[in-house]
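Appendix B. Raw example, untouched.
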Amino acid sequence: MKVYTIGFSRKTAAEFFQALRRAGIKRVVDVRLNNTSQLAGFTKRGDLTFFLKELCNAEYTHETLLAPTYDLLRLYKREAGDWNEYESRFLALMASRKIEERLNPALLDGPTVFLCSEPSAEHCHRRLVLEYLRDRWGPFEIVHL
């Protein structure tokens, strides 16, 4: 099974939705803390739900259980925090939330993509979430769009 990730920043709407269609995505799991900001552009919750249905025949879900806390995000983003420290704290947060017990593995049925804002998965929590779940739920391939 493949599970995908995508970030919307530095992508046009056309690039974003074409990538989802090429991958055959049927479910988008939004792992952002805030999905209503004006900075989200075409990926604001209401707009994204509409566009996904119309352009990709895909469903949308916002899963805040998989988002960082405001404090953790602020520490890394606004105070120029260290990625390794952020990663360690975020993984500890996922463990304390026991996401592997609170989520149904069927969430990954799809094809499914995990969405965040970062253009690259290298320094984004969407990658960390999927790696964490893969270690606990069993093997699946992670593909970054």
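End of appendix B.
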